[in-house]
Design goal:
The complex is a heterotrimer of chains A (348), B (315) and C (479). With 348 residues, chain A is mostly helical. Chain A has twelve helices and no strands. In chain A, α10 packs parallel to α11. Chain A is elongated. The N and C termini of chain A lie close together (6 Å). In chain A, 36% of the residues are buried. Chain B is an alpha/beta fold. Chain B has one domain: Rossmann fold. Chain B is built from ten helices and twelve strands. In chain B, β9 and β10 form a beta hairpin. With 479 residues, chain C is of the alpha+beta class. Chain C contains 15 helices and twelve strands. In chain C, strands 1, 4, 7, 8 and 12 form a five-stranded antiparallel β-sheet that branches. In chain C, strands 2-3-11-5-6 form a five-stranded antiparallel β-sheet. In chain C, β9 and β10 form a beta hairpin. Chain C is elongated, with a radius of gyration of 33 Å. Classes of the chains: A mainly alpha (348), B alpha/beta (315), C alpha+beta (479). Chains in contact: A-B, A-C, B-C. Chains B and C meet through β1 of B and loops of C.
Chain lengths: 348, 315, 479
């Protein structure tokens, strides 16, 4: 009873989610015929290349054709094109779940590797760097400003913050990014147009670090400006509604000092709904990551996914969808654990 | 005299104007006695209690008068003084709607022990020991100490809250509708508990309710409130058989009686608007004995029978 | 009834609500204006049809920018005439003139020059007219711009014979070789400058036509009156041209400027209004309806139905929306219904979960017990008794969800996955970004679409903020 059962149930749901998303992605790509089309065109490219090479070796046209036919048969089998698309599924899913992600077609790491796991490993830290910094700053802002504003409910400050939050919520992060670049990079020439490092990157570690800071400034400011508003508003609303509960008055009448009341009776109780909102906001975070990275040409998971979809790189798309869902699901799971720990009412 | 309240006023600012929730209320409480304050919903009885424990919202426009606890006037005290000297140590309170009086994320025992830790500086272990004793006193098993509020039934929560109010052995315990949210059998249990506590501890209480019958069970003295004013005050033995104020009379006759055939009467009209109360005597629009004078001048308190009545009939 | 009146006065009490409603009224008004002025297939017929915008200036700023500039930018100019200015006999033929004049006052050269004639009419089968174009400069010099030869008619048709009726004849002078050669001789004859054809093309014909020569062979814009003539050398006095146009490419155009294809951004932006309203309101209505409906059913009916719905909702809640949305849009092509469907499908669960818990506490109240005791059917109880309890919250959620839908659609369009048959603000931004508008400083392309997105989203956010005290009575103002 209690903790264990709740968590086990959540865990099960999440695994179901993971598998269904994967299945769904694979089904979509296969059933729409995209899979077959793309694989055929890849195969034909390879065939053309082979044919080119062979013409220099085999002069006789008949012999050439025969050799090509053989090779084509082998290739068809290798690509799995001799079977219907759904026969390819179990194999694909098995490989992905075991994290054998295969190779990308066009994308490469800086060191020239095609392996998807290498590519992902190279790019994840970039995304984490940007997203986590933004998340932390927003979180702190929310927790610092939110409660303070809640306790000043109805004043001009409260109204001003509400206004700021309203506009901030309505502001598309990616558009704000464009405005930032327009103003700070084009007009004022203070910050770079995008990317993570200057080209060529400097050798000195300290200079590299400064260069990184210089590049991360605009995307970070954009993310904070666009997202802090709604976050502050949410914490404010939650703290406000908790502060009006009876048990808070009781705590004061009990003679508890005001800061203790604030800590133990308001913030502690507000923590769990606030956390729920963090979880809810995760979906938005992933979307925000993808869009912001694209605008600032930040070499992270977002731009990678975009490139994968645009170039219809099937294995890359599958791998990335899986990784995204995995990260999302894991993050939610961790947050659900925290949620259960903080709010005893949730335990089964 | 343990507590003397004179001319207590508490007004709230609203969009429509000032709500005169408590408008010149005066009464006194003797040691070991229980004073009941009765009246309809919205007559200001909870506000009076809140005024005494200084549980005030942000939109207070007037808070004045004298609240004397053994010669110490409470209103002029600073926040800090009030908190460290008076709150919970001298006066504690059981709120209306006990359902929501406990912090949902803290264990029940800990919340009850909190005043001991904060005010008396006890360690957690020592405080919890005392809590266990208190729980026994109110009829709760000691394992409740480790439970969370949502795991308790309504009656259990109420007992825990009463225990919580007793932790620092206050001089005065104020109870605001302690049984309204409970069903009748539990209500009886809680009333018995309170009577026991009164006997064993000799604690002075102010018991606020809309249910006169309930109050008559435990109260030594009665104050009847109407539209922010006390219209009658006196001992239970004097008021119950022969109420003086027309409102009190109406209240008492609206109680159905088990052994009598009389049909309960109701009070015609609606509760008054506390922003703009009726002129003169506030009860005059609903009073069966209304005279000309009643609509023009508010009657003063007339001493009667060891208590007082606010009615022109007795001047 | 009084509940509605009371709610409304509570809502109206704050200034933010008033502003929200005002904004909404403007949104609706502009949408109505758009729908009545522009055709419904505006997207397919005009916006995505580059040919339509050929004579528009490319990447032009809005006209009103000239208010702030000391050196005014040249406006886009389109001159036209549909009647002959004069006719003169010439040997045994006629010369018909079509003249249009233009006062050049700016210190710039036109970006391009285009001549257009339509509805050329002639009566002699074997003697079609010759059309020659000239321009006379403020300094009195004349340049021969172009000669258009018309083919004789070989078929059995009867006069009058028409050319260029369906489509006007368009002559883009910039980069034209014939004009270049004409300019070579012009320069030599009038100014004694030797510049080869390639030299002329490098400098740009517009500079030479509209320029005066400076000291070191540079051209500065020549201010003054220019007269463009289309001269028809024809055999019949009734031969003629229906319309003669001269287009001088400007640097500013219209209320909102143009994009890199020359598309009038004002029209494109207008069209975004009704679409934003439809998407925003449509998606939120559907999501709220489904989400609240399932929440009520799940909470009231309970049992296995409740379990199933909750599990399903929880599962969906755990799926990251954008990656899948990108994938689906890419595979099925950007289509409005797909976007709406996916947005609704992924967002009803959160509403369901909250409504369900509200229903659970409403279910325990006594008047529900009473209704059941009377024998009311479950459907009736859910509709008549439970729904009114959750209605204010649901309504507020619906309002709050609208901006989300608008923002989501523009994000999708920005990724290039929007519906390609109608221009939305997100798409205009996508095209701008792809064409480097951000890095080239084309602020008129980047600022307005985003501002409109923010504006329409903010409208609903303000209204939702105003609804807050109605929904949460504890926040009602006592001051």
């Amino acid at each position: 009873m209690g903790l264990g059962k709740t968590l086990a149930l959540k865990g099960l749901t999440l695994i179901v989610v993971l598998i269904s998303v994967l299945l769904f992605t694979v089904l979509i790509i296969g059933a729409s015929g995209l899979s077959d089309r793309v694989l055929s065109s890849i195969m034909n490219e390879e065939l053309r290349g082979i044919r080119q090479k062979l013409t220099t070796q085999i002069r006789d046209p008949e012999e050439l054709n025969r050799a090509m036919d053989e090779i084509k048969q082998d290739l068809v089998k290798a690509y799995g094109l001799d079977k219907p698309w759904y026969a390819r599924i179990p194999n694909m899913i098995l490989r992905i779940v075991t994290l054998d992600l295969g190779s990308a077609r066009e994308v490469q790491t800086f060191t020239g590797s095609n392996r998807i796991s290498d590519i992902i490993l190279e790019r994840i830290p970039n995304t984490i760097l940007l997203m986590t910094s933004a998340l932390i700053i927003n979180f702190v802002l929310g927790l610092v400003i939110g409660p303070r504003i809640a306790l000043r409910h109805g004043t001009k400050m409260d109204k001003a913050i509400s206004l700021y939050s309203a506009i901030s919520y309505a502001l598309p992060t990616w558009w704000l990014g464009m405005l930032m670049i327009l103003f700070f990079s084009f007009k004022l020439r203070i910050f770079p147009f995008g990317g993570m490092y200057s080209v060529p990157p400097s050798e000195d570690t300290f200079m590299r670090f400064l260069d990184l800071l210089w590049h991360v400034m605009l995307p970070l400011i954009t993310l904070v400006l666009a997202l802090s508003g709604s976050w502050i508003y949410i914490t404010r609303s939650i703290v406000l509604s908790v502060a009006q509960e009876d048990f808070v008055s009781v705590a004061r009448v009990k003679g508890l000092p005001e800061d203790l009341v604030r800590r133990r009776y308001i913030v502690r109780v507000a923590a769990s709904p606030i956390l729920t909102n963090v979880v809810l906001g995760l979906a938005g975070s992933i979307a925000g990551a993808i869009l912001t990275e694209i605008v600032f040409d930040w070499p992270g998971m977002g731009t990678l996914y975009y490139k994968a979809v645009m170039s219809v790189d099937e294995s890359l798309i599958l791998a990335l969808t899986y990784i995204f869902t995995l990260i999302y699901v894991l993050a939610r799971f961790i947050l659900e654990i925290l949620y259960v720990v903080l709010d005893p009412r949730v335990r089964l | 005299m343990l507590l003397e309240v004179s001319n207590l006023r508490l007004y709230f600012k609203t969009l429509r104007g000032d709500v005169k929730a408590v408008d010149g209320v005066s009464f006194s409480l003797d040691k070991g006695k229980t004073l009941g304050i009765v009246g309809e919903s919205g007559c200001g009885k909870s506000s009076t209690a809140n005024a005494i424990v200084r549980n005030l919202p942000r939109n207070v426009s007037r808070y004045e008068g004298r609240i004397c606890l053994e010669d110490m006037d409470l209103i002029p005290l600073s926040e800090d003084e009030f908190r460290s000297k008076i709150r919970w140590r001298r006066i504690s309170m059981v709120f209306q709607g006990a359902m929501n009086s406990l912090n949902p994320v803290l264990k029940v025992g800990f919340q009850v022990a909190e005043p001991l830790i904060i005010h008396k500086g006890l360690s957690r272990g020592e405080a919890l020991k005392i809590v266990e004793e208190l729980f026994r006193l109110v009829g709760l098993s000691s394992e409740i100490v480790n439970r969370y509020p949502h795991e308790l039934s309504g009656g259990m929560k109420q007992r825990a809250i009463i225990a919580m109010a007793l932790t620092l052995n206050p001089d005065i315990l104020i109870l605001d509708e302690p049984t309204s949210a409970l069903d009748v059998s539990i209500q009886a249990q809680i009333m018995n508990l309170l009577k026991n506590l009164k006997r064993k501890l000799g604690i002075s209480m102010i018991f606020i309710t809309h249910d006169i019958a309930l109050a008559s069970d435990i109260c030594d003295e009665f104050g009847v409130m109407y539209a922010g004013e006390l219209v009658e005050l006196g001992s239970a033995e004097k008021i119950l058989p022969s109420p003086k104020h027309p409102y009190t009379q109406k209240l008492l006759s609206s109680i159905p009686r088990l052994h009598s055939d009389k049909t309960p009467e109701f009070i015609p009209g609606a509760p008054p608007d506390l922003v703009a109360p009726p002129s003169g005597c506030r009860f005059h629009p609903r009073c069966p004995y209304v005279m000309d004078k009643c609509s023009r001048e508010n009657p003063p308190n007339t001493l009667v029978n060891g208590g007082f009545v606010k009615c022109w009939l007795y001047k | 009834m009084s509940f509605i009146r009371e709610s409304f006065s509570e809502f109206w009490a704050s200034n933010i609500s008033k502003i929200g409603i005002l904004f909404l009224a403007i949104l609706v008004a502009v949408s109505i204006y758009t729908v009545t002025t522009l055709p419904l297939d505006f997207g397919v017929r005009y916006w995505y049809n580059p040919v339509y915008w050929v004579d528009y200036p490319k990447s032009a700023q809005p006209e009103w920018i000239n208010i702030f500039l000391s050196e005014k930018l040249m406006s886009h100019v389109e001159l036209s005439i549909s009647k002959a200015s004069g006719i003169k006999p010439y040997n045994n033929r006629f010369i018909k003139y079509y003249n249009v004049s233009y006062n050049h006052e700016c210190n710039q050269f036109p970006k391009f020059i285009t001549l257009r004639i339509s509805d050329l009419l002639f009566y002699r089968r074997d003697s079609p007219p010759i059309v020659r174009f000239y321009v006379t400069r403020p300094d009195g010099r004349t340049i021969e711009l172009y000669t258009l030869a018309i083919e004789t008619i070989s078929s059995n048709a009867t006069p009058p014979f028409r050319y260029f009726s369906m489509e006007p004849k368009r002559i883009l002078l910039s980069g034209d070789i014939y004009l270049a050669r004409s300019l070579v001789s012009f320069l030599y004859r009038e100014f004694n400058i030797s510049l080869g054809t390639s030299g002329v093309l490098e400098v740009g014909s517009e500079k030479i036509i509209f320029g005066s020569i400076g000291g070191d062979n540079t051209f500065t814009p020549l201010i003054g009156r220019y007269v463009f003539s289309a001269v028809l050398i024809c055999s019949d006095v009734n031969d003629g041209i229906g319309m003669f146009n001269v287009v001088l490419g400007g640097y500013v155009y219209g209320l909102m400027g143009t994009d890199v294809l020359g598309r009038d951004l004002f029209q494109g932006l207008l069209f975004g209004f009704p679409i934003a309203l439809i998407i925003g309101v449509g998606v939120s209505l559907l999501t709220t309806f489904i989400g609240a409906g399932l929440g009520i059913v799940s909470g009231y009916i309970g049992g296995r139905v409740d379990d199933f719905i909750q599990r399903f909702a929880d599962t969906i809640n755990n799926i990251p929306l954008l990656p899948l949305l990108i994938l689906l849009s890419f595979i099925f092509g950007g289509r409005l219904w797909l976007i709406i469907f996916v947005l609704v499908f992924f967002n009803w669960p959160s509403l369901t979960i909250i409504v369900r818990s509200m229903v659970l506490s409403a279910k325990a109240s006594q008047f529900i017990e009473a209704a059941v005791a009377i024998g009311a059917s479950r459907l009736r109880i859910m509709v008549k008794h439970i729904f009114p309890q959750v209605a204010p919250f649901v309504f507020a959620q619906m309002i709050f969800f609208t901006p989300y839908a608008i923002l989501a659609e523009s994000a999708l369009s920005f990724l290039g996955l929007g519906d390609v048959t109608m221009p939305t603000w997100g798409q205009i931004l996508e095209y701008g970004f792809k064409n480097g508008a951000v890095f080239l400083g084309y602020w008129w392309w980047i600022l307005p679409p985003g501002l409109f997105i923010v504006y329409s989203a903010v409208t609903f956010v303000f209204i939702a903020l105003g609804m807050e005290p109605v929904v949460n009575p504890r926040l009602r103002r006592w001051k």
